[in-house]
Each structure stands twice: as C-alpha cells, then as structure tokens.
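Dear Dr. H.,

I hope your travels went smoothly. While you were away I took the liberty of generating a structure for the chain from your last submission, since the lab meeting agenda had it listed for discussion. I wanted you to have the full record in hand beforehand rather than looking at slides cold. The sequence, exactly as received, is reproduced here:
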Amino acid sequence: MIPNFVRKKFAGVQQPLGRWILRHICEFIVLSPAILVTWIWLKVRRKEILIVGRSSSSITAFLMPLDPELRRRSKTLGELEKLIVLNLSPDANSQIRIMYDRVVRIIGAEKPALRRVFWWCSFATPGVQEREILECQNDPHWHHSDPVVALTAEEISRGEILLREAGFDLNQEFVCYATRTDSYYQKLRDRGVNVKSRSVRNPNESIYLNVSKGLSTDGLNIVRMGKDLDSNIDSSEHPWVFDYASTCRSEFLDVVLFLRCKFLINGATGSVLLRAIFNLPTVNSDTYRIHKNWFSGDVATFQKVRFVSDGRLATVSEMVKMGDAFSDERHQEKLGVELVKNTAEEILAACDEMEARLNGTWVTTEEDEALQKQYWDLICDSGHHGGRIGAQFLRDNQDLLR
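The corresponding predicted structure, in token form, is as follows:
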C-alpha cells in the first residue's frame, strides 16, 4: 500500500518512472546510516570518486575514462591513493580488472551494496568525476604518459604455456585482427544490457580475410580475435588464419595476445583500448566516427559517406557537420547517405605503413605531412595529440579534404 503523500508526489508521473523514483527513495532511507558513515570517511580521508561503466558493460566504457585519469594521477605522489573507482557495469574483461585492481581501488558488481553506498555518496563528494567517453580519447595522457598497468612475469609465462597447448606458434611474428559484429551486441542484449548494435557500422569480415592473406605472404601469422562470435573460420579455405576467437578464447589470453602481437588491425571495435593501455599501436580501419585524435602510434582509415541521390562522396567538412548521425541507421535516410566500407587495398596500405613505421623504414614526404595537417585542421580546433590517418588513404582521397 503506497501512502497518499507518495501518490500525490508522483501524480502525473509515468508509472515506470514513478517506481524508479520510489525505489531510490526507499533505498536511500534503508542505506542512509551506511551512506552517512561512508560520506564522513570520504571527507576525512579526502577521497575522490571516479564513475565508469555507466553507459554499458563494454571495455570502452571502463577503460576510456579510467586509464588517462590514472596516468595523470600517477605523476603526483599520493594522488592515486585518493581515488576510488565505481564501475557501474559488470566487468568487461576479468584480466583487465585484475590489472587495474593492482593500481587503484575499484568497487564493481562483486560488491553491489557497497557500490550503491558509494554511488549515493558521490552526489555530495568533492572531486567526483564522470567523464564523457568520446572526449576521453582526446586526453593527451594517452600520448605523453607511460602505461600504468602491465602483465606480471608469471602471467606472461602462463599465457605462453596456454597458447602453445592450443597449437599456437609463438616463434613467429603475428598480427591480430578484430571486426565489429552483430553477435557481440546480441549477447549483451541477452544479458539484459540496453544496447543497440548499429549494424550498419559493421565491416565485412571477408575483406579482413583478404587483408590477412596479403599479410601472410610477408611471413606474418594472423590471429582472429573477437568475443561472442557466431561464425568460425574454415581452416581449409583460410589456412593462414588462427581462429583463436572460436577455439581457445579467454579474457586472460585476449590481453596476452594483444600485448604480444606486432600490431592489431581493428575493424571498428573497442579492442583498440587493449593496445592503447600499453602504448602499443593499432591500424584502426573502417572507423565510423570523426575522431579528434587516435592513440599513440596508430594509423587509421575511415568509412567514407556517399550521398544516395547522386553517388557523390561527402567531404570531410560535410562529415564533421553530420557528426555521428551519418553512421546511424536512424538518421541515414533523412540525411540521404550511406557508408562506404574500406577496401582490402586501403587496409593493406595502412598495414604496410604500420610495418614500415615499426621497422624504422618509413619515409614521410612533405606532401604526406601537408595532407595530414589539412585533414586534422578540418577535424579539430584545439590541436591534434596523436595518431595518423593512413598516408596512402589521404593521397587517394585528397579531393575530400575540404
């Protein structure tokens, strides 16, 4: 029985919202003694709270706001000890969580009651931070600070043993690739996460298999990465690919492989963060957003935008004006646009550039630097911190740099 004063308070409010408000009021009343004690402790100890994972349980929602903040604090004695991290979503990767637990105190799904107490305290705690995920990628600490996490020697040794047991050859250089898939988002929805797949953004994995074939001729092993995939790679058709994602995948080995590979070819997934936290470079292909920066050493190519009415490709300025809407099926029809995926040749050219840069043989021309500047001047006013667009990609698309 709901009291009359509560009924009057929420009169005219939609029932689901009313229940949500009532539930929070009841929760606050029940937890208020613990909230008060915790708030006093936070004030006395001068603690600060960083909230991550509110938007989803993806690795991006956890790492993007967390890692640069830890890098910033690691430069000042005692700053890390002041921070408490509230992860509002389930852990996206258990090994990643273990590594960050060694650096900072994190309260997550394993302690739901305590997390709620600290969440309530966050509203009245100075220094509370909840940074916008996309803006966190522009943080200069991704480019100018050392990593704050690492695998231990024991973890590396254990990972190598497990990979050899799975038939993986660690004596040969290898490249990983990952592509955005519908199945990953469907599994999130199955677990009750409110997320839309935006499938129009997904690359065609067959293109990446063609890229991997080209790289294999250079003596590189190719490893297929991914989580919750609904397809396997036929080893008879693609013998150069080790289908780790469908055979022996684990959250622990994900981190080991991303750390050990020569570079990652990232087809629009959050896997790039598992390289960025170690300051290791990635080829970011088929990107579907306008990014003001990439991570340290990254080489990127983007999906182009085509106007359906006349087949003309949008200029970079037009893409900036449209924002994320050009890669969202809810808005594409109104805008009259469609995405143009990267070709195997475009991705291979970016991979060749990455290999040359890693091997120290890449030669940058004045034309390439001018095209880079022309591109970034169209993207951001505040300055570009790191990462590059593929040199050949810009050469081939100079007419769009306006």
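Two observations you may find useful: Residues 35 and 120 are 7 Å apart (CA to CA). The radius of gyration is 23 Å.

With kind regards,
E. W.
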